[in-house]
Amino acid sequence: MIDTVLFLAAITYGPMLGLFAFGILHQQKIWDKGSVLVCLIAPALCFILSKNAQNWLGGYKFGNELLILNGLFTYIGLWLISKKQPLK
Predict the structure, then answer these.
(1) CA distance 34 to 82
(2) Are 43 and 86 in contact (CB under 8 A)?
(3) What's the pLDDT at 87?
(4) What are phi and psi of 42, to 5 degrees?
(5) 71 Cβ contact list (under 8 Å, min separation 6)
(6) What's residue 72's pLDDT?
(7) Predicted structure pTM score
(8) Contact at 8 Å (CB) between 72 and 22?
């Protein structure tokens, strides 16, 4: 039961971690509607990766590091949809 709760926390809190990190580290504007897509795609990728990791990665099983990976996917997705700001 505890593993299920931690898995759900990793899936749901990952996008918040990525959004927070991107907001702190960058001053770039993002495509607003794209951020919703990124925050839905990143957990889906993590879910697929966690379910297939044992076959794809030689028996490796993801644990709590899934939270960090989910945040990283969100951060990268936000960076890809960001708009470059001109230097002033």
Answers:
(1) 9
(2) no
(3) 52
(4) -60, -50
(5) 14, 15, 17, 18, 21
(6) 95
(7) 0.84
(8) no
First to last CA, the chain: 53
Q: Return the DSSP state at 63.
A: -
Tokens of 34: 């794209």
- Amino acid type, 29: K
User: Which residues make beta-bridge pairs with 29?
Assistant: 83
Provide DSSP, 30-55: E-HHHHHHHHHHHHHHHHHHHHHHHH
The total of other beta-carbon atoms located within 10 Å of residue 41's CB is 14
List, for residues 35-72, the tens digit of each pLDDT value: 999 999 999 999 999 899 999 988 898 888 889 999 99
> Can you tell me the distance from the alpha carbon of 6 to that of 31, in angstroms, rounded to the nearest whole number?
31
46, 10 contact by CB (below 8 A): yes
The two three-digit tokens of residue 14, written as one number: 């990952």
